[in-house]
Amino acid sequence: MTQLNIQATERTPTIFLSGPPWHLSLSGESYPEDVSAFYGSVILAIDEIVASAAHPLHAELSLIYINSSSIKALYRIFEGLDAYRQKCDQVTICWRYTEDDDIMQELGEDFQDRFPQLSIKIQAD
Question: Would the pTM count as exceeding 0.70?
Answer without folding.
Answer: yes
